[in-house]
Amino acid sequence: MIITSNGTAASKPKPTRKATRRCFPFKIPLPKVGICGTDDRDLDQFRHPVGDPPHPGLLRLVQILLSLLVGFSSVMLASAHLHLSLYEEIYGYTYLRVFAHAFMVLLLLLTLVTLFGIWRRRFSLWLPYLGIALTLYLALNFANIDHWFADKNIQRWKKTGKIDPHYLGELSPDAVPLLLQLVENPDLEEADRNWLLTGLDQTRKGLNSKQELRWQAWNLSNQQAREALQ
Predict the structure, then answer these.
(1) End-to-end CA distance of the chain
(2) Using CA atoms, how far apart are residues 51 and 45, in angstroms rounded to an integer?
(3) pLDDT at position 79 over 90
(4) 3-state secondary structure of 2
(5) Residue 189 bridge partners (DSSP)
């Protein structure tokens, strides 16, 4: 309360809050009415926070250069695939080499999707990336990899006479039917046959263990291998 010049009391006026201009330098959905005292033409700076759209000629040049980069990357993937295939023909097939092939396939699919996204600017890339990665992951889990290993290494042995019985003997029960056929082949050397028989005997003991005989651990592949090794 304050005292005026004529001696009367008067209440203190409340301070008024000044209006402030609040503009946001990022892209937000804006109504058709003006904001901050501007009209619709001034709102373009909010809709395009990085400035004016690129020149069509410059955009096309960038797309061409990015496409060339994708093409060169695909050539490198093809070269790596060829070199790894030659390596497998000489030294055989293993988990690491086959999974390297699978990773190359994943990179090739991702590059193709990226190439499509370069020429379709509004195309979202993360969803196809995720779908391709999950599909390949599930395919590797459901594929009979060990059976495929045994088959490819046996075919290589028939062509070159070279085989790695140590690695084949460590494969999962999925490879047991093919390994039993290989053991009965008269062309197999005695030392290699003994190594394979040792590996098959270890597999039989593992399948007949108490842990594997529980109903929670049952699966069709183990059951077929267990019957074949009896």
Answers:
(1) 105
(2) 7
(3) yes
(4) strand
(5) none
Torsion angle of C-alpha atoms 206, 211, 217, 219, degrees rounded to 10: 30
Cβ partners under 8 Å of residue 187, min gap 6? none
- Find the helix packing angle between 56-91 and 95-119, rounded to 10°: 170
Question: In sequence order, what DSSP letters do the residues of 170-221 get, joined into one string?
Answer: TS-GGGHHHHHHHHT-TTS-HHHHHHHHHHHHHHHHHHTSHHHHSGGG--HH
State which H helix or E strand residue 9 sits in: strand 9-10
Rounded Cα–Cα distance for residues 230 and 208 (Å): 10
pLDDT of 28 reads 45
* Position 8 confidence tier, pLDDT thresholds 50, 70, 90: low
Mean pLDDT of the chain: 78
What does each C-alpha distance from 159 to 46, 138, 162, 196 come to in angstroms? 69, 32, 8, 19
Rounded CA-CA distance 154/28 in Å is 64
Contact indicator for 146, 94 with CB cutoff of 8 Å:
no
Most confident segment among 12-26, 33-47, 71-85: 71-85
What is the spatial distance between Cα 95 and Cα 146, in angstroms, rounded to a whole number? Answer: 9
Return the higher-pLDDT residue of 112 and 5.
112
- Percent of the chain exceeding pLDDT 70 equals 77
Bridge partner list, 3: 9
Q: Which residues on neighbouring strands pair with residue 2, listed in sequence order?
A: 10
Inter-residue contact 149 to 88 (CB < 8 Å):
no
